[in-house]
Write a structure and sequence with these properties.
Blueprint: E1 10-11, E2 23-26, E3 29-35, E4 42-50, E5 53-57, H1 64-75, E6 83-87, H2 93-96, H3 99-106, E7 110-112, H4 114-126, H5 133-141, H6 146-158, E8 171-172, E9 180-181, E10 184-185, E11 187-191, E12 198-203, E13 208-212, H7 234-242, E14 253-256, E15 262-263, H8 265-284, H9 293-300, H10 302-306, H11 310-327, E16 330-334, E17 340-344
Parallel strand pairs: 5-6, 6-7, 7-8, 13-14
Antiparallel strand pairs: 1-15, 2-3, 3-4, 4-5, 9-10, 11-12, 12-13, 16-17
Length: about 350
């Protein structure tokens, strides 16, 4: 690629492998795409040959659709060779859902950051449980009424997460580790915000970054305050994490978990920062007077609210408000009933 890769995002390809197919995107690195039964309708997996089998990064959702796609891959282009090592970027269901299924089936080691392994186990334990009193109180403290809380609980219950247990052991990954994957040394880059301890993997050979959800090609990763960590500031964490990618070469090929492979890492980092700056500016424009996070979310994310994505809209609104508090442009007010409102400073 030429010097333009420093200044703009350029796709490696504008097509993707069909279900059950793989495509080589770099030397010894194969790309497969699993369909998902949700609005975000696919997840990318990456394969490397290891001795008499495969190393795979991420596992897909525990759904019949993904299991069928896996069977097609194993019987077809992967030539029925076994999975020898499963590596996880982070513990969200579309990435970790089939991890236990694969580990049990192939008796292979499982590598992940500790936080994401524990988070995935906790999420599975919570599956099917109704909101407890603290979660209901959290949502109502930000302006949700009882009907809205019930709707958010239904939205949460409708998310397909699968039933297979998370692997019971892990090989822990930490920031700065340099494991050999497919016979090639990779640098582990741990970021936060979208997930607590998200792992991306950079290899200097060919300048390739397996970015996971931390840096996506077209959309921005979900960054929200969902209530399990009510005082968290994930957006500040996310923006700080992006700095860890700034020193990678300008011609790095970025392999995201959703969307298409692309060049232009630094341009994309700038776009992500600008997106969140603009979103915060939009939110601040509605804060001349104290207002609840729910009221702001209904204004900023009206379409998401109408399409049953209200909990995500509220969570993202809160992430920007908490970031605004951190940088000193938002002030929080709490009344005697515990209701939180926010006003720009």
């Amino acid at each position: 690629m030429d010097a333009r890769t420093k200044d703009k995002v350029e796709l490696l390809t504008d097509t993707f492998p069909a279900p059950g197919e793989v495509r080589e995107v770099a030397s010894g690195l194969l790309w497969a795409r699993l369909p998902l039964p949700m609005r975000l309708n696919h997840v990318n997996l990456w394969f490397m040959r290891e001795d008499d089998g495969w190393l795979v990064m991420d596992a897909g959702l525990d759904s019949r659709m993904c299991r069928d796609a896996w069977e097609a891959l194993l019987a077809g282009p992967l030539r029925a060779l076994p999975i020898r090592h499963l590596v996880l970027t982070h513990g969200h269901p579309d990435h970790v859902g089939l991890a236990g299924w694969l580990v049990d089936r192939f008796d292979c080691p499982f590598s992940a950051t500790r936080t994401e392994w524990l988070f995935a186990s906790w999420r599975r334990e919570q599956q099917g449980r109704p909101f407890g009193p603290r979660m209901r109180r959290f949502l109502m403290s930000h302006g949700c009424d009882g009907e809205t809380v019930a709707a958010f609980a239904r939205q949460e219950a409708s998310i397909e997460r699968g039933l297979h247990p998370v692997p019971e052991q892990l090989l822990r990954l930490q920031h700065g580790d340099r494991p050999l994957f497919g016979g090639i040394m990779h640098q582990v880059i741990v970021g936060s915000g979208h997930a607590g301890e998200h792992a991306s993997f950079y290899r200097d050979e060919g300048h390739v970054l397996i970015a996971g959800d931390q840096i996506l090609q077209r959309i921005t990763p979900v960054i929200g305050v969902f209530g399990n960590e009510p005082a968290g500031d994930p957006l500040s964490d996310y923006l700080a994490s992006l700095e860890r990618f700034e020193t990678l070469p300008a011609d790095t090929l970025v392999l995201p978990s959703h969307g298409l492979p692309f060049f232009g890492l630094r341009a994309r980092l700038a776009q992500l920062r600008e997106h969140h700056r603009e979103r915060l500016a939009d939110i601040l424009a509605h804060m001349d007077q104290p207002v609840t996070a729910f009221e702001i979310a209904t204004l900023i994310f009206a379409r998401a609210m109408q399409e049953g994505q209200g909990r995500f809209a509220l969570a993202e609104t809160l992430a920007h408000l908490h970031h605004g508090e951190t940088i000193g442009v938002v002030r929080r007010l709490v009344d005697a009933s515990g209701l939180n409102t926010f006003v720009r400073t």
